[in-house]
Structure formats: C-alpha cells, structure tokens
Amino acid sequence: MNIFDWLHRAEAHAEPAATPDETGLRGSVIAALRTVYDPEIPVNIYDLGLIYGLEVDDDVGTVAIRMTLTAPGCPVAQTFPATVEQAVRRVPRVREAHVELVWDPPWSRERMSEAARLELGLI
Question: Are the C-beta atoms of residues 19 and 115 closer than 8 Å to each other?
Fold first, then answer.
C-alpha cells in the first residue's frame, strides 16, 4: 500500500489535538507540526486545524500528511507543503514524509483547537 492510500482512508476532518499520552513517532511528528506556523495567522498548523490526515508507520518510519491552507489563494500554496515536509523529516526515525495539499473540505475556524481560538481572542 502506498503512503497516499493511507491518506484516502482517513476521514476528511482535522485531527484532534495531541493528548499528553501521545508517544512514539506520532507524538514526535505532532510536536514537529506544532513548530510550523501559518504565515498569516500566528498559530501553528496543527492547532489551526490545517492537518486533515496524519498517518505514521512507526516500524518503517514513514509519515503521510493530508493538509489544507486557510485559503486557496494563499501566497505560499506552492511552497508551504515542502516546508511542512522538511519539518517532519527532521524528526528522528522519520525516513520518509509526504504532504498532500487538499482543498476539500474547505478550512474554517471551527477546525481550530480551543487553545488556538483562545490565543487569537476568539473565545
């Protein structure tokens, strides 16, 4: 099964925020995603709800990410997936990472974590 087949099995909604018991490679990948910030909104892409699917194979070290941007006309649409991919590839034990950019369903503020909404003064 190729890495993008995993993504198409995933539901088309944002991943829930990592819990304190997220361990292993998945937890490390989520931590790396939280270091990448949206270029227009001062919130990391994970808590912003831009990650629609995250598949991690601990045994092989592969990561497949299905993500969106806040708007299709985002000026970094062509380069941002590579930025995310590079951040994930820096995680120890990640041997391969792929990011697929999707636009459906469209991103909305409801996808943001409570912490992100609080940070932006939306709560």
Answer: no
Report the CATH number at residue 104.
3.30.300.130
Predicted structure pTM score: 0.80
Task: Give the H/E segment covering residue 29.
Answer: helix 24-33
Length of the chain equals: 123
Alpha-carbon gap, residue 25 to 62, rounded angstroms: 10
- For 25-36, the pLDDT digits (tens) are 999 999 999 999
The span from the CA of 79 to the CA of 11, in Å, is 25
Q: Per the structure, how many domains does the chain have?
A: 1
Residues forming beta bridges with residue 63, ordered by sequence position: 56, 97
- The answer for residues whose C-beta is within 8 angstroms of residue 56's C-beta and 6 or more apart is 24, 25, 26, 29, 62, 63
Structural domain of 83:
3-119
Which residue, chain included where needed, has tokens 């909604």?
Answer: 13
Written as six digits, the tokens of 85 are 């991919």
